[in-house]
Task: structure prediction
Amino acid sequence: MAATRANVIFSENVRKLQPSATIAVSTLAKELRAAGRDIINLSAGEPDFPTPGFISKAGIAAIERGATRYTPAAGLPEVRAAAARFLARPANPELDAGGVVVTAGAKQALFNALFTLTGPGDRVLVPTPYWTSYPELVRLARAEPVFLAGPESRGYKVGPEELEEAWDPSVRALLMNSPSNPSGAVYTLAELEAVARWAADRDVWIISDEIYGRLWYEGEVAPGLLDLDPALAEQAVVINGASKTFAMTGWRIGFSYSVPSLAAKMAALQSHMTSNAATPSQHAVLAALSPSSEERAELDAMVTAFRSRRDLVVSLLGELMPHAAFVKPEGAFYLFFRVDDHYNDQHAGSIALCQHLIQEAGVALVPGEAFGDDRYVRLSFAASDQDLENGMRRVAEALS
Result:
């Protein structure tokens, strides 16, 4: 066999690229479990429920009838129309399906938006804590992420004051997430309106990741940009998808909504990357996005379970670690809590502490450094009540 070069010279596009920390922790937990270790994995960023049967049957039926060929890059017309109906709000009741681009997961929708709207010399405001992939996606677009945070008392949500302080004329976009991964914080309608008016005044695009919008504990759907006056949503890209709401993470279906001219350009970009999202998955998500008694019952059951688990982990944290600061989750399925009081010479930050917890306590959490705040760790309550209680007690004992 011919010898290969030991040192690969990477392009500037990926030279500083880091792998996903959340995926890395989850992979390590699975490897340790496969090796026979007793590991409680509370790092997963996906629902622990199976994809609802009626959705899976729709995907299987599509395969059986031969619906396995290419679709338009932006997605099947009927799926785009269903996504537009899914995203519609009273303030924007008739969304143009031409503004929808169906993608291979919400992550691709985020990449499409950032790569189409930003580039070298542009800056993108990224509130912390952020989902771990945001900075890397910004950098892949050759733009620069600019980090900022609101006050702890507001769940770190940013407002016009923080945005204005971070702004300069090179700021092209704001990348925000509500409900938040990792904190579960949710922007109120008034907070969103204030942010949107600031962005309009500064000619800044908003890329709003609302993938957890239906996993909200105060109502049917969390406030989003499309709840605002249509004029305030014109310079925005709303990101959503099926992964979290319908427990379809592996099906890889996301979608974006924007003005049709931007959607057409993002679809053109996608046509040269992945072409279309997987055709059977599109037929499956069409069933998910079509209102029915099955769809409503499955979603209600999942939200009810997550709300109960949220209450359980918040109660356990108060009992076992009463001095740990945290953001009470109003949506999504994560608990983000402070652990920096427990740092020492052996584990001086969240990464070292999480390594200690998985090796010594057999519990996998995600270090806060991956989300831009090294004082915290993220726990996913997409797990059974027994695993949550045992895992929290193990963590408390290891840190005591």
In short: Residues 69-290 form a domain with the Aspartate Aminotransferase; domain 2 fold (CATH 3.40.640.10). The longest helix spans residues 293-320. The chain has two domains: 21-50+295-399, 69-290. The mean pLDDT is 94.
